[in-house]
Every structure is written in structure tokens, then in C-alpha cells.
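re: that complex we talked abt at group meeting.

here r the seqs, copy pasted straight from the sheet so there may be weird spacing, ignore it
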Amino acid sequence: MRYLPKSPAERQDMLASIGAKSIDDLFSSIPERYRLREALNIPGPYSEAEVIQYFKARAAENSVGYSSFLGAGVYNHLRSVITDTIIQRGEFLTSYTPYQAEITQGTLQAIFEFQTLMCQLTGQEVANASMYDGSTAMTEAVLMAERLTGRTRVLVARSIHPEYRAVLRTYAKNCGLRVEEIPYTSSGAIDERALQAALTNDVAAVVLQSPNFFGAIESAESVVDKIHAAGALLVVTVTEGVSLGLLRPPAEADIVAMEGQSFGLAPSYGGPFVGVIASRDKFVRQMPGRLAGQTVDTQGNRGFVLTLATREQHIRREKATSNICTNQALCALAATVHLALLGKEGLREMAQQNHSKAQFALSELTKIPGVKRNFDGPFFNEFTLEFPRSVKMVNAQLLRDNIVGPYALGTQYPELTKHALVCVTETTTRTEIEKFAAALRRALEQPL
Amino acid sequence: MAYPTDRRYTKEHEWVSVNGDIATIGITDYAQHELGDVVFVELPKPGAKVEAGKSFGTVESVKAVSEIYAPAAGEVVEANPELQNTPEKLNSDPHGSAWLIKIKLANAADVNALMDGPAYDAYIADKAASA
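got the structure back, here u go
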């Protein structure tokens, strides 16, 4: 898409041809009192040299030489330059929504491959072209369950990422959904007895995350029959996609909502990420968002098109399944390229390394006096430790040793102020883990 | 063609056939022809209430998604299960096996206000002439 500048005379011509006097006339349908009167509070314009200077200064703010043990929904994984090289090709980087199949086969095929990969990873039958991120994907999965069941009560594990739950609450507030939280047990997993007690036949969906926010692997198998017996649907959320290289896919779920950041997207400033929704074929018409489908053209050649677009709001606004009317095409492409490069074996090896290194870190860290493991359930690459003092204080000490410490669970769970969520990925070296253990030992020996 | 005289018709091209207080509702041959190949039919579940003139479901064809409007008020007693897997029957047998729903009429007399076969024939002819 090209951006064409317009001269003042050309603007006047355009206004005249539609019968408007000024640009302001175009906003006449917006009531006077809602219009912004003052100028936007933004700097500029800057010259090219000033812009470059500005961004160099921002780039210099980046910290280098730190080891990170922070995960909690965003994961530092190896990325190949091949991924960036491919997604930066102009055909992908600047292309618009692929409405016109005859000129967008490359983009459509990439989306189709993405959907296929997501189905394989999640054990589901159909996946969409992507959502904005994991949190909106989870919320859309809940809304989908509401449409499918005609019910409005939703049971959500408290061990789900707190920000994901916050996004769900935001949506729920004005659309009549009743969201109830189910506590966790000493293993870190959902309290199945509390779930059972709350699970009556007015529940639309039960939402779990695995591995959950405490790093614990949830066992959906043991609850799925009860959920279905109550006429509810099981939604499984995955925030760490690499775990699927090792864990059994959540095939028993009715809807899977996943964050795909772990597949080739850098943590950056916390985005852009890519959300995934996958489900059963029979639910496809209640799925939100875009879908690419495979077909044959008039000459019998394989081709790709956007399909089932009648569920989208640009076709039927008031009857659309969701207000999402785009997808994270470039991020989905990055995930597709990344996974294609890794392959099945590569992903499994990456996942195995995450788990082995996390196991090693757990054994090193729990040797430190006063450090206990909390939540003893099986984990993937994150686990929860209890410190003898506040995690935030400890982290301030660690930062002086160039270590970005674990996530302080007290930030979101008032009952867990001394609890730290430690993340170890394949990028973490043995030396870094040993340095972290030594620094943590020193930090805890400091007088309060 | 002359439309069957054993039922009534709406301006939105639904037909309704009454037996006691049960009304069977479908779309007309004209409607299926206008829609083109039907690929999906979405119908309410038994127990759902429908209101006269209000949408109760959708028919999706390769060309468009269209609402289906209830010819009369009532409660759904049955939705045609065949259409879930064979929506194309709406194209081949719209007046017969591809009925959409059966409702228990709130007021059986409501249906009498709708067009009969000859009136619908004229309505269609008029539409064709003005098209």
C-alpha cells in the first residue's frame, strides 16, 4: 500500500467533490461536546537527524549483560535471523489484509500453514488465523463458549495469568458474563473439589491454564468428563507454547487459547504478541476472527482463500462472532517460520532443554538455606520458590549483580509476597544459573 | 410455478404450514433460488421462543448470510436435524424435507393474516416484473 501526500489544493478539490467545506465537516456526526478542541499533546515535527538521534538515545537505554529469570507469560527463547529475514520481505511486511485471494496467495498460504501448525500443537481440529495475544484469545474463547452453550457463568482457575483474568473481567463487565474464580491447592493446581462444587448446569466454560501461572502442569484429563457432564465446555489456556514440545497436547479441551510469543517473537517491550484459538471442527462457526482455507481454482490448482468471513464484523456487523476484524499476520508468520525451522524434533529438544535446565536451577536454588519449593506439582520451565523475605527486596539486591530476578508473585497474589516464580529457558546457561544461586545466597545473607 | 395452496407465505419468503397448533416453517423455492447454494443453516433449539417478524435463525449460502424471520409467534418444538449435515437439501426440497423448525403457535389465527398460495404467486410475479 502506498501513502500519497496531498497538496492543499488537492484537499480542497476532494472536499468540494463530496460537498464538504472543511475537514471538520467530515466529523459533523460527532456531537460537539465530544470533539477535541486543543491541539494534540505530541512533540515534533522532528527532522530526520533529530529522529535518528532520539532513537539512538532510546536504544542506548537497553540493558545488556543481564541474566534474566523472569517469565510469567513472556519467555526469552532462541530466535533465528532467518525468521526476521523472511518476515521483513516487503511482500509480507507491508502487505494489507488478504481479502483479494488472486493477489495474496503467499500471505494466505502462510496463514494456512500457521493454522495447521497450531492444530498440530494443540491437538485440535481447527485453528484461526490468530488473535491479538493470549489474553484476548482466552477471553474470546470464553465468549465462544457462551455462544455455544447459551450460558453466562464462567469458572476460571485463580492459577491463570492474572493479566489474562483482568482482560476477561473487562470484557465480562458489560456483556453479562459472571466470572467466578476457583482456588488453587498446595500443589499449585486447580482445587478440583472447589471446582466440582461450583460446577452446576448453568456453567458455560471452565477455564484452566497449563502450565499454569505458578508453573504447575494442570491435569485437564481428570476434570474434563465432569465439565462435559455439566454441559459446560473446557477452555485450556497455554501461555508458554514451547511446553507443547514436551507435554501432551490439550486435545481434550473444547477450545484452546494460546499465546504464541514463544515461537520466534522477542519479548521486546511486551509485544507485539500473537494469540491462537483452536477448537473442534463442529464449533468453527462460533469461532472469532479470520480463517484461511484451502481450495482449488477453476483450473484445479491448489489455492487459498479467507473463508467463513460471514462471521466477521466487516460483513455482518451486529451478528459478528467478535469485534476482532484482523489478525496478527506478521507475528503469525514469524511463528510459522520459526516452527518450520525448528521442526518437530527441534521443538522437542528445545522443550527438553527448558525442562532440564529448570530442574537443575530448582536443585541449585533449593540448596540455599531458607529457600523452599512451594507448589510441588510437576512443572515445565517455571517453578515457585518461597524466600524467607520479600521477593521485591531480594530482586533489588539481585539487580546489582546484573540479574533480573524472578517474578514476585505478591504483585498479583497478596497471599504470596515471599513467593518467587523462577523461569529458566534454553537460553539460560549453567554458569548463569550458578551465578544466580550464588547471588541469591548472598542476598539472603544480607541483614534486613 | 404455482405455489402450494396448503400453506401460507410471508413477504420475507418463508412458508408456514399449520396442523392443529403446530406450525412447520420453511423458506420458499424463490428464497432458495435467490440465495444460491446453501452451505449452513443455524436454527434455534427446542424450547426457544420465536416472535412474529423477528429473526430466529440464519441461512448461509455461498453468496450471503440471510436471516430467517418467524411468520408467527410460538415456542420451538423441533428443529430439522437433517439440515445440520445436509444444508443443500434446502436447495433441492425447500417445501418438503428441508423444513426448518416446528413451533407451537401462541395464537393459531396469526397465520391467517399471511399470504395464501395465489397471493404469493402474484407477489413473486410482481417482484420479477419490477426487477
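couple things i noticed - Chain B has a mean pLDDT of 92. The CA atoms of residues 34 and 123 of chain B lie 15 Å apart.
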